[in-house]
Every structure is written in C-alpha cells, then in structure tokens.
Amino acid sequence: MVHEPEVEGTDAVESTPEEVELEDEPVVIELVTEPDPLETAQAELKSTQARLRSVSKAYTELQDEMQSFKKRAEGQADRKSVKRTADLVRTLLEPVENLRRSLDNPGDSVETLLGGLKLVVTQFDDGMTRVGLRQTGKVGERFDPRRHEALAMTPVTDRSMDGMILMVQTTGYVLGDNILQPAQVIVGKHEVQEVPKPQPEAEVIDAEFDEDEPVDGDDASDEEVDA
After folding, report:
1. Please, what's the b/e burial string for 52-78 (b: 16 or more CB within 10 A of its CB; e: otherwise)?
2. CATH number of the domain that residue 182 is part of
C-alpha cells in the first residue's frame, strides 16, 4: 500500500468542479467604440431635412387648399351679389312700367295723372322695403347727425320741438347699417323769448304861467283890435 507524503505546513486545497470549468473558459473583453460625431451629425441632418420636406409639402397643400377656398368664396359672393341686384331690379320693374304707362296715357285731367304717379311712388316704396331699404328723416323725428344733415335751424317757441325735424328737403335712405343717403332736413331750435320790459311813463311837466304875463295869443288879438 502506497502512502502519499504529507505536506507539512500547508493545507491541502481541493478544487471544485465549478472553479475548474472557469479556469478552462477563455476570457472575452468587449471593446465599446464611441460613435463618430460626423456620422451622428449627418444622420441628424438627414432626419431634419426629411421633416422639413414633409412640413413644406403640408404647407404647400394648405396654401393650395386656401386658394381654392378663396376662389369658391369669391364665386359665392359674386353669385349672391348678382342675386341681390336681380331682386332689386325685379322690384323696380313694375313701378317703372306703370310710370311709363302713366306718361304715355296721362288722361284728360291732372287728378288722373297725379293718382297714377302716387301709385308709382307707393310701388317704389314697397319695392325698396322688400330689399331692406329704409327711409330716414321724417317730420316729427328727432334730429340725428349720424343720419341727417341739417340745412337750417328754425327758431321755435315750443320746447318740445327743440331738435325735432320740421321739414324734409331730401329723404334719406339706410340699407342695413350703411347710410346710402343722409336726409337733408330743417331742424327746430327752441329760443326763449324775452318779455319786453315796461317803459317808464312820461312825466308831465306843468308849465307855470304868471297871471300878469300876457299870453301870446292874447297879444295877437289885442294887436288886431288896435289895427
């Protein structure tokens, strides 16, 4: 029987299977390389350029859409304007035709002609009302400098007529909020009339005559007698 010699002064160390396997595997060291700054900048530039092209395309499409919308809106506005003009012309056709008939056949009397003209004026007023045209500036209305033009101021004694329209020279017309023609009017202006002060009575001065002093008339009569 063979005995292994004992090693004095040292402890025998036994290796585990795990340690043996680790000693047999090669050690691999991975080296991490830093990215190239130039390549990173180029990549970012390409990405930015791609986004700019996308934004530019979207902006161009938006501009084209806005132009198309503007043309459609202008076309609709033109059609509405033509329609309003056509409606206005239709309202004037009938009174114009009646006016022409009245002038062609005035009748035998002035009353007949005046009746026809009054009918035409009424038709004109109705037609203008239908298209939204309103008259402004009537007798008895309060003067409004935004819609009326004062041609003259007439003194009035009644305080309630101060600033009121007394006479209309030209009728004004308003369409919506637009003043097409201001009314030319004459406006009353209240003035306080001063009461005339009583005049002082004239003093009567009594002439004092001397009884001994002859009167001019008596002297003349005496001269005539002597003659």
Report:
1. eeeeeeeeeeeeeeeeeeeeeeeeeee
2. 2.30.22.10
Full domain range(s) for residue 103: 46-130
How far, in Å, CA of 154 to CA of 161, rounded? 10
CA distance 190 to 164: 10
Q: What one-character DSSP code corresponds to residue 8?
A: T
Please answer whether residues 114 and 141 qualify as being in contact, where contact means their C-beta atoms are separated by less than 8 angstroms: no
Do 115 and 138 sit in the same domain of this protein? Answer: no
Q: What angle do CA 100, 103, 109 make, to 5 degrees?
A: 145
Residues 140, 94, single domain; the answer is: no
Interval 30-63: pLDDT, tens: 666 677 788 888 888 888 888 888 888 888 888 8
Which CA distances in Å does 62 have to 55, 72, 116? Answer: 10, 15, 61
The helix or strand, by DSSP H or E, that contains position 134, with its residue range, turns out to be: strand 133-136
Q: What is the pLDDT of residues 196-214, one digit of tens each?
A: 666 666 555 555 545 555 5
Q: How far from each other are the two terminal CA atoms of the chain, in whole angstroms?
A: 227
* Orientation of helix 37-104 relative to helix 110-130, angle to 10°: 160
158 in a domain, yes or no? yes
Domain tally for the chain? Answer: 2
Pairing status of strand 183-190 against strand 148-156: parallel
β-pairing, 148-156 vs 172-175, is unpaired
180 phi/psi in degrees, rounded to 5: -75, -35
Find how far residue 16's CA is from the centre of its chain: 100
